[in-house]
Amino acid sequence: MYVELTDETGKVPKKIIEQTQKVLAFAADFIKLPENKEMAVTFVDNARSHELNLQYRDTDRPTDVISLEYKPDEEEYFFDEDTEIPEELLEELDPFIGELFISIDKAAEQAADYGHSLEREYGWLTVHGFLHINGYDHYTPEEEKEMFGLQEEILSAYGLTR
């Protein structure tokens, strides 16, 4: 999987950027994501996170990670109106799955609040966002159990334990 990483803040340590790349590759293999997939991760501050949260979620506060899932739209391709395009073909034509915006301010706050390392917090936020852009959610107790269980499985297997 190809991951484009951007640090808008200029403050993210190199080891966190490298860890983010590695944990995403690990998570992609873990859930058996096709190798041709692509995504983007941008590290932002709380002010930018607040703007994005307001824009995309209509929530007037900063948040730790914003996940924007991308689903290809068959209208973007030049097929006859009557042609039904299989989902697999759409996914192959456009491998971009989404993007994450991770607040470095929230990551630092939460690592301190939860009493674990900054590495663990960045890993948690990365895998959490990654699972969201791959169709996982936590709106119901069943979804939450599935998503958080898988998230912890991935982090533990990777070595980012509490």
UniProtKB/TrEMBL annotation:
Database matches in PROSITE patterns: UPF0054
Pfam families: YbeY (PF02130)
Keywords: Cytoplasm, Endonuclease, Hydrolase, Metal-binding, Nuclease, Ribosome biogenesis, rRNA processing, Zinc
Free-text comment on the cofactor: Binds 1 zinc ion.
Keyword Cell membrane recorded: no
InterPro entries: MetalPrtase_cat_dom_sf_prd, YbeY, YbeY_CS
Enzyme Commission designation: 3.1.-.-
Needed cofactors: Zn(2+)
Coiled-coil features, chain-numbered ranges: none
Stated family: Belongs to the endoribonuclease YbeY family.
Name of this chain's protein: Endoribonuclease YbeY
Organism: Lactococcus nasutitermitis
UniProt gene name: ybeY
